[in-house]
Amino acid sequence: MTMTRQLPTPRTAPFDAVADEYDARFTNSLIGRAQRASVWLEMDRLFRPGQRILDINCGTGVDARHLCSRGIRVVACDASPEMISVARRRLDTSTFQARVDLRILAIEQIGELESEGLHDGVLSNFAGLNCVADLPCVAHDLARLVRPGGRAILCLFGRICLWEMLWYTLQGKFKKAFRRLRGGGVLADIASGHTVLVRYPSIATLRRDFAAHFRLVSWKGTGIAVPPSYLEPWAQRFARLFRLAARIDPFLGRCPGIRALADHVVVVLERVEL
Which run of H or of E encompasses 166? Predict the structure, then answer.
């Protein structure tokens, strides 16, 4: 059974506009499955059955469903009511016994969960934190929600994406090729009339912003040989080459130096006891 708590939102969430097509465009794509598999390796290694995990910017509930299938209780939150609606449909048709609690709640409001007790860990997948202006504030809120010793798995856009630089440079689109290096972030078009400011913090910045409450345990890249999601037509056209890229990507993602060239980085933090 799933439960949804309706909380007030200040305005229409930008990602409402793409909720219905998100799974087709990314979740079920070759590139989406390959990159998500890399995050699930960390989830399956660190999150155990019986634990209670907080899934922020949960999107359409794919990760929550996976955690639920492993006997993990999940509190899954997203700022987009439409994303939560898709997640509810996905989870209500599942056969899993574990309970998933769905919330319409933005990352910036996550501190409102403090009265409900501590979680054993937290997940933020696929760049939700890139859309947040104040990461130290998020770190402070999460510290009040995660028990000491609990792990946070955060997947964000990387600061330097080799694929992106090469792809757009070859097209003469230099502004796009190097947009992740721009200070202050980039205004990204989500859909017609819907934009969001995306920032690309470095690993050093993430370490600093979370340092008061979390210590950096490890990090890896995902999407080095595997391209960004906007190259899905290329992945489908050259399926054999893509399968090779997907096989070698996990190895490249852990290589010092090379891992910093990924589309996404997967960061593991541990909640420290003050």
Answer: helix 162-170
Count up the domains in the chain and report the number: 1
Does residue 172 belong to any structural domain of this protein? no
Domain membership flag for residue 190 = no
Whether residue 166 lies inside any domain: the answer is: no
189 within a domain of the structure (yes/no)? no
CA angle 93–103–96, rounded 5-degree value: 30
Gyration radius of the chain over CA positions: 18
Question: Which domain does 74 fall in, by range?
Answer: 2-158+201-271
Report d(CA 99, CA 173) in Å as an integer. Answer: 47
* CATH for 11: 3.40.50.150
Tell me the pLDDT of the chain (274 aa) as tens digits.
454 444 444 446 889 999 999 999 999 999 999 999 999 999 999 999 999 999 999 999 999 999 999 999 999 999 999 999 999 999 887 776 558 999 999 999 999 999 999 999 999 999 999 999 999 999 999 999 999 999 999 999 999 999 999 999 999 999 999 999 998 899 998 877 888 999 999 999 999 999 999 999 999 999 999 999 999 999 999 999 999 999 999 999 999 999 999 999 999 999 998 7
- pTM, to two decimals: 0.93
> DSSP strand E in 174-257: where?
186-191, 194-198, 214-222
